[in-house]
């Protein structure tokens, strides 16, 4: 089959995913979406609309029942579990809400970890460059417990970018951070996209966070129902209210 969407970092083609149950839960319904190289996309939508499922299918962590998911020229849906694991290590970076750092390891050792898992030779200059990128070069020998939450998340970002992945996926990356630390992480994301041509796909509930992205996708009931270009937080919040109904808080 020929690809009509060459140039996309990630491309979903009619992706459907359901979870078993009585009745089964239809989490994604025929979702088609291209994420262009060098763009920063936010995914929003009400709770249960399918955001995490979309992220997991796009990142090859989960496999849809129907449709295709491409990472560059690779069809992830055709790969075995083992090949997807190797591909994730080599070509994808992840940042989660809860940092997921190894507490016994230093900052440097945490950032080195993906290279070790890949069997890549450890190049100190690469580690140093990743730590500089997140403004933490002078914290290289500390352990996570000796850092603030914002600094820990910046270590997680350094760990995600050190392999120079084609795509970085982030699931609520600022959810556990105060406003200022959250903004610092988002500024690093922005710079990584603008200066290194990184592609970032991020799930968030927060319109302020989404306002740093180049585009915002809105999911409802397993479908992409709206796409906004880069927009101020107020416009994103208004769109979310239109889709979700007024906020309860
Ligand atoms: N492992 C699972 N087994 C069964 N149902 C699941 C599973 N994971 C998710 N679901 C269901 O699939 C639907 C989509 O879930 P998903 O986690 O993708 O939504 P979400 O938009 O990320 O939600 P939230 O904002 O609350 O994290 C929901 O109805 C959810 O209950």
UniProtKB/TrEMBL annotation:
Xref: InterPro entries: AAA+_ATPase (IPR003593), ABC_transporter-like_ATP-bd (IPR003439), ABC_transporter-like_CS (IPR017871), ABC_transpr_LolD-like (IPR015854), MacB-like_ATP-bd (IPR017911), P-loop_NTPase (IPR027417)
One MF annotation (Gene Ontology) recorded for this entry: ATP hydrolysis activity
Record-annotated ABC transporter domain positions: 10-246
CDD domains: ABC_MJ0796_LolCDE_FtsE
Domain of life from the UniProt record: Bacteria
Name recorded for this polypeptide: ABC transporter ATP-binding protein
The organism's taxonomic lineage, starting at the top: Bacteria, Bacillati, Actinomycetota, Actinomycetes, Glycomycetales
GO cellular component labels: membrane protein complex; plasma membrane
């Amino acid at each position: 089959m020929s690809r009509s969407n060459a140039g996309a970092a990630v491309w979903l083609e009619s992706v459907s995913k359901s979870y078993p149950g009585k009745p089964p839960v239809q989490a994604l319904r025929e979702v088609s979406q291209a994420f262009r190289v060098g763009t920063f996309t936010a995914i929003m939508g009400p709770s249960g609309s399918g955001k995490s499922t979309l992220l997991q299918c796009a990142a090859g962590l989960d496999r849809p029942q129907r449709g295709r998911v491409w990472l560059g020229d690779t069809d992830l849906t055709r790969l075995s579990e083992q090949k997807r694991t190797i591909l994730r290590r080599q070509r994808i970076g992840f940042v989660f809400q809860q940092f997921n750092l190894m507490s016994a390891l230093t900052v440097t050792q945490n950032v080195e970890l993906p290279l070790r898992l890949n069997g890549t030779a450890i190049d100190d200059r690469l580690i140093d460059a990743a730590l500089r990128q997140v403004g933490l070069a002078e914290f290289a020998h500390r352990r996570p417990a000796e850092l603030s939450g914002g600094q820990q998340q910046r270590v997680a970002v350094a760990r995600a970018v050190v392999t120079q992945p084609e795509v970085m996926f982030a699931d609520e990356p600022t959810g556990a951070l105060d406003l200022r630390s959250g903004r610092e992480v988002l500024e690093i994301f922005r710079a990584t996209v603008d200066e290194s041509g990184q592609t970032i796909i991020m799930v968030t509930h927060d319109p302020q966070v989404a306002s740093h992205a180049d585009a915002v996708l809105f999911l409802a009931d397993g479908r992409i129902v709206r796409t906004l270009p880069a927009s101020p937080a107020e416009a994103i919040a208004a769109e979310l209210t239109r889709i979700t109904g007024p906020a309860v808080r």
